[in-house]
Design goal:
The complex is a heterodimer of chains A (299) and B (552). Chain A has four helices and 17 strands. Chain A is of the alpha+beta class and 299 residues long. In chain A, a hairpin with a 4-residue loop joins strand 4 (166-175) and strand 5. Chain A is globular and about 100 Å long. Chain B has three helices and 30 strands. Chain B has helices spanning 2-18, 184-187, 422-425; strands spanning 26-28, 31-44, 59-71, 74-83, 96-108, 111-118, 132-133, 138-139, 142-152, 155-166, 169-170, 174-183, 195-207, 220-232, 235-244, 259-270, 273-283, 327-338, 350-362, 388-404, 409-420, 434-446, 451-462, 469-478, 482-490, 502-512, 515-524, 527-531, 534-538, 541-551. Chain B is globular. The chains are: A alpha+beta (299), B mainly beta (552). At the A-B interface, helix 1 and helix 4 of A face strand 10, strand 12, strand 13 and strand 14 of B.
C-alpha cells in the first residue's frame, strides 16, 4: 500500500509538472485577423508611366514555378489574392525555373518559359528544390530565401508598412522613328547607405495562354488546364542576371540615379501585355530595397 | 558537479586535440576514445540524355566523423560534417564544414543528464522522434537538455527541452517534451506473472513566436500520446493514440483542425513462425518546430511506416512515402520456416515470408457548402475516423522464399505486386497509378570459404510509367577483403523508344580491418528513395563514386 501511495504521488507530480510546463494555445474563431493591415490601393498606374511615384514600400514577390508543377496553380491563386489585397504595393514576378519548367520534347508542354541562364544562376543562390516556392524581397527568413506560399501573406504584411529605403520611378517611351522602346528608371534613396546597390530591370508578360498541370479541381480541370492563363511571366532581364551597380560605397539621402535601357522585344511577346519590373537590391545579401512596375503601353 | 563537468570536459578536449584520431581506441584518464568516419564523393559526367543535371563543381562530397569519449558513466562526443558541396539529391543548404552535433552526458544514481545534442523517441514516435538518416540527408537532432530518471523500479521518466537542427543552424522553435514509461509488473512486484503490462504517456509542446498580421496563430502547439503494451509468451500487442491541437502550418495550408494518429500492432511468434498485424490512421499530423517549413526539416515527430522496406533495386523502385496530412494503412506479415529434411524444406530448411500492406486516403468532407476542403484560416475539413477515403495510395503484396540447396548454393526468390499512386506519392497528378509485377532471383554460389559469386536477376513488368525493366547483377566476393560487381539496369520497354536506357554500374571494394574503400562507375536513374516512409528525390546522374568508411 505504501508503494501505491508513493507511486500515485509521483505520477500526480509528474503530470502537474508536465502540463504546467507546456501550455497549449488553442485558438478559437476568428482564425484570421480582421483589418490587420491597411493598404492604400489608391495609387494609380495609368498610361505608360507611373504618374505618381509610389513613396510607400513596394514588395517584390518572385514566384518560382513551372508548367508541369501540379501544385503551382495554388501558388498562382495565392499571388493573385495578394495582389488584390496589397494593390500597387506588391509586384509579382513568375519565374519559370527547374525541372517542372523544362519543356517536354513532345506533347502539351513543349513551350519554354524559362529565361536561361539567368533563372538558374539566380536559383544557384536561393537553392529552391521544391516548387512552388517564393522569394519575398529576396530576404532570408530563418536562414533561407525560400518561402512556401502559405507563408507569403504574413511575410509581406510584416514589411509592407515599413518605409522604403528608396523610391523608384519607371517611365517607358516608344520612339516612332526607330520603333524601339526605352525604359528610364529613376532611383532616389531615402536614407544614407554604404555598400554596393544594384538595379535590376526585367520584362514581364501577362496573359500567356499555355497548358499548365494542376492538382486542384477548385482552380480548374485536373491534371491539365490546356488554356491556362499564365500571369506575371518573367520574359527577360534587361541589364544582365544581377543588374547594374547604381550606388557603390557611400550613398547620401536624396542621391538619385537615372538609368536608361533600350528594350529588345521578341516577336511572340504581346506588347499590350508587357510591363517593366525594376528593383533595387543590396548586392551583399540580395535583399530588395524597393520595387516598381510600369506597363509598357497605354491601354 | 560543475567542477566534475569541467574536469572531464577538459580531459575530453585535450584527448581530441592531442590524440591521433584515426588510430585504435585510445585510453585517456581511464576512459576510451572511439569514432567512425565516412566520405562519399562523386565525380559527375555530363549526361543530358538521362536528365542528369549539370554540376558546375564537377565533384561533390559529403563526409562526417564521429568522435566519442567514454569514461565510466561519462560520455562526450562531437560529429564533424563536411559538404563540398552537397551531393546531388541532398539539400544544398548542407554547405561547408561544421560541428552540428556535440554532447556530454553522465549517469548518477538513476539520473542521466545529457547537454548539447541528442536523439530520442517517445513511444512509436508520433509526437516525438529525433534521429539521423544519412542516406536521406535527414537530421532533426535536438540541441538542449535531456534528462532521464528512474525514481523507482519500473518507472522511467524523460524530459527534454531545446531547439532542432536546421542544417548548420538551429530552428526558431523551442521544443519541450516529457515522457513516462511504467512497467506495471515491476512496480507492483508481479515479476512472476506471465503477462507483462507497460503503459506510457508523452506530452510535447513547441513554442514559436508569431507576429503574423493575417492569422491568429497558436504560439504554443501541444501534442500528447498514450500507449499500452501487453506481452505474454510469444504474443504481444501495442497501441498508441496521439492528438495534436490546432497547428496551422505551411504543410496543411494553414488550417486549424486538430491532428490525430492511431497505431496498433500485434505480433505472435513461436519457433519457426512469426506473425505481425498492424494498422494506423494518420490525420493532419505534420508537426514541426517551424510552421513555415516544408520538406524534411525541423520535423518533431515520426509517423511509423506500415510498408515493407524492400532491399532489391527493382522491388524498391516504387517505394511508399508516408502522407502526414492523412492516410489509413494496414500491414500483415507471416514468416514461416519449413523444417529441414522435409519434402518442402529440403536438407537445410526453407524460409518463407509473405507480406501485405495497404495505404489509403482518409475520409475528408467539406465543413459546409461554401468552404472548400482545406481552405486556409478554417478548420479545413471534417473526417469520419473509421471511414476510408476513396483513393488508394499504395498496395504491396510480396512473397519471399529463402532456401539453401547445398553447402555451396543458396537462393532467394522474391515476387511482389505493387500498386503505386505516383500522383500522391511523388506529387505528379495526372501520372497514372502504376501496377507492377516484380520478380527477383538472388543466387549465391560459394566456391570455398572465401570465394563467393552472387547473381541477381530482376524483372519488373508494368503497363504504366516507364513500363518494363530488367536488371542483372554479378558480384564476386573474396572474403574478407575484396568485392567486385557489375550490373546493368535496362528500361527495355520504355514507350519512348529513345529513352530505353541502360543504367550500367561497375564497382569494387577493398576492406582491411575497419577501413573500407569502394569505387564505382555508372549511371543512376531518376527516382525517389525512402527509408521508413520518409523520402527524398534522387536525380539522374552519371559518374565515378568513391566511398571511404573507417572506425576506430
Amino acid at each position: 500500500m505504501k508503494n501505491i501511495i508513493k507511486i500515485s504521488k509521483l505520477l500526480l507530480l509528474t503530470l502537474v509538472i508536465a502540463f504546467s510546463f507546456f501550455a497549449c494555445s488553442k485558438i478559437d474563431e476568428p482564425y484570421k485577423k480582421q483589418q490587420s493591415v491597411i493598404i492604400d490601393t489608391t495609387g494609380v498606374l495609368t498610361g505608360n508611366t507611373i504618374t505618381d511615384t509610389i513613396d510607400k514600400r513596394v514588395v517584390l514577390l518572385e514566384d518560382y514555378t513551372g508548367h508541369t508543377c501540379v501544385n503551382c496553380p495554388k501558388a498562382h491563386v495565392k499571388a493573385h489574392e495578394l495582389l488584390q489585397k496589397y494593390g500597387n504595393q506588391l509586384v509579382v514576378l513568375a519565374v519559370h525555373q527547374g525541372t517542372f519548367a523544362a519543356p517536354a520534347s513532345s506533347g502539351d508542354y513543349t513551350y519554354d518559359f524559362r529565361v536561361l541562364p539567368t533563372v538558374d544562376e539566380w536559383n544557384a543562390v536561393w537553392s529552391i528544390t521544391g516548387y512552388p516556392a517564393g522569394l519575398i524581397n529576396r530576404t532570408k527568413y530563418n536562414g533561407s530565401f525560400v518561402n512556401a506560399y502559405g507563408s507569403w501573406d504574413g511575410k509581406i504584411a510584416s514589411i509592407v508598412t515599413t518605409s522604403p529605403e528608396a523610391i523608384i520611378n519607371v517611365k517607358n517611351y516608344y520612339n516612332t522613328t526607330t520603333s524601339n522602346y526605352t525604359t528610364r528608371v529613376n532611383t532616389k534613396f531615402n536614407i544614407a547607405l554604404t555598400g554596393n546597390y544594384k538595379l535590376c530591370v526585367c520584362i514581364m508578360e501577362d496573359s500567356i495562354i499555355k497548358p499548365q498541370k494542376n492538382s486542384d479541381p477548385s482552380i480548374g480541370s485536373t491534371p491539365d488546364i490546356i488554356d491556362y492563363v499564365h500571369m506575371h511571366v518573367l520574359r527577360s532581364v534587361v541589364n544582365s542576371t544581377w543588374g547594374t551597380t547604381i550606388g557603390n560605397a557611400s550613398i547620401k539621402i536624396g542621391d538619385t540615379f537615372n538609368n536608361s535601357y533600350t528594350l529588345t522585344l521578341k516577336s511572340d511577346w504581346k506588347k499590350d501585355n508587357l510591363s517593366i519590373v525594376a528593383f533595387v537590391y543590396d548586392a551583399s545579401d540580395y535583399h530588395v530595397l524597393q520595387a516598381a512596375l510600369a506597363p509598357l503601353n497605354n491601354k | 558537479m560543475k567542477n566534475y563537468f569541467r574536469k572531464v570536459y577538459t580531459i575530453f578536449i585535450l584527448s581530441v586535440v592531442l590524440s591521433p584520431i584515426f588510430a585504435k581506441s585510445q585510453t585517456i584518464g581511464g576512459g576510451q576514445i572511439h569514432g567512425n568516419f565516412q566520405m562519399d564523393a562523386q565525380y559527375y559526367l555530363k549526361d543530358s540524355l538521362i536528365g542528369a543535371p549539370n554540376v558546375p563543381e564537377k565533384l561533390l562530397m559529403n563526409g562526417f566523423a564521429n568522435i566519442i569519449y567514454s569514461n565510466g558513466n561519462f560520455n562526450a562526443g562531437i560529429r564533424f560534417e563536411s559538404y563540398q558541396n552537397a551531393m546531388l539529391g541532398f539539400d544544398p543548404r548542407y554547405k561547408g564544414n561544421g560541428i552540428p552535433y556535440r554532447f556530454a552526458s553522465y549517469t548518477n544514481d538513476g539520473l542521466q543528464v545529457t547537454v548539447g545534442n541528442f536523439y530520442d523517441q517517445f513511444g512509436s514516435g508520433m509526437v516525438f522522434r529525433t534521429y539521423e538518416e544519412r542516406s536521406l540527408g535527414y537530421d532533426n537532432a535536438m540541441d538542449g537538455i535531456h534528462v532521464k530518471y528512474k525514481p523507482y523500479k519500473g518507472i522511467e521518466l524523460k524530459g527534454l527541452i531545446g531547439n532542432q537542427r536546421f542544417f548548420f543552424d538551429k530552428g526558431v522553435g523551442i521544443v519541450r517534451g516529457f515522457d513516462g514509461n511504467f512497467f506495471i509488473n515491476d512496480i507492483f512486484g508481479l515479476d512472476a506473472m506471465k503477462t507483462k503490462y507497460t503503459i506510457g504517456g508523452s506530452f510535447v509542446s513547441k513554442y514559436q513566436p508569431s507576429s503574423d498580421p493575417v492569422y491568429n496563430l497558436p504560439e504554443n502547439v501541444g501534442a500528447y500520446a498514450g500507449r499500452l503494451n501487453i506481452t505474454r509468451s510469444g504474443f504481444g500487442i501495442m497501441g498508441e493514440y496521439a492528438y495534436k491541437i490546432n497547428d496551422p502550418n505551411a504543410s496543411n495550408n494553414m488550417i486549424y483542425k486538430h491532428g490525430e494518429g492511431l497505431f496498433v500492432s500485434t505480433s505472435y511468434s513461436q519457433k519457426g513462425l512469426g506473425v505481425i498485424l498492424s494498422a494506423k490512421r494518420i490525420d493532419n499530423m505534420d508537426f514541426r518546430s517551424d510552421r513555415n517549413e516544408v520538406g524534411n526539416v525541423l520535423i518533431i515527430n515520426y509517423l511509423p511506416a506500415l510498408t515493407k522496406q524492400h532491399a532489391y533495386t527493382l522491388t524498391a523502385m516504387y517505394p511508399y512515402g508516408t502522407q502526414p496530412n492523412g492516410e489509413i494503412g494496414y500491414e500483415g506479415s507471416i514468416m514461416y520456416n519449413i523444417k529441414k529434411d522435409s519434402w518442402l524444406g529440403g536438407s537445410y530448411g526453407t524460409k518463407v515470408s509473405v507480406n501485405y500492406s495497404l495505404a489509403n486516403s482518409i475520409d475528408k468532407q467539406k465543413l459546409n457548402d461554401t468552404i472548400a476542403i482545406g481552405t486556409d484560416g478554417t478548420l479545413g475539413y471534417k473526417s469520419d475516423f473509421f471511414k476510408m477515403g476513396d483513393k488508394k495510395y499504395f498496395e504491396d503484396f510480396n512473397i519471399e522464399i529463402n532456401r539453401k540447396f547445398s553447402k555451396s548454393i543458396k537462393a532467394i526468390l522474391t515476387y511482389a505486386y505493387i500498386t503505386y499512386n505516383k500522383d500522391i506519392i511523388e506529387g505528379h497528378p495526372g501520372a497514372p497509378t502504376i501496377f507492377a509485377n516484380i520478380v527477383v532471383l538472388d543466387i549465391s554460389y560459394k566456391f570455398n570459404t572465401t570465394n563467393t559469386l552472387r547473381m541477381e536477376l530482376h524483372s519488373l513488368m508494368a503497363k504504366q510509367d516507364e513500363h518494363d525493366w530488367a536488371m542483372c547483377l554479378l558480384e564476386y566476393t573474396i572474403a574478407p577483403k575484396w568485392f567486385f560487381s557489375v550490373a546493368d539496369l535496362y528500361n527495355y520497354d520504355n514507350p519512348d523508344t529513345k529513352r530505353r536506357f541502360h543504367y550500367y554500374n561497375a564497382a569494387f571494394g577493398f576492406t582491411k580491418g575497419t577501413n573500407r574503400f569502394a569505387l564505382s562507375y555508372g549511371k543512376q536513374r531518376q527516382g525517389i528513395t525512402c527509408v521508413g516512409g520518409v523520402c527524398r528525390q534522387v536525380p539522374a546522374s552519371n559518374g565515378i563514386s568513391l566511398t571511404i568508411t573507417s572506425s576506430f
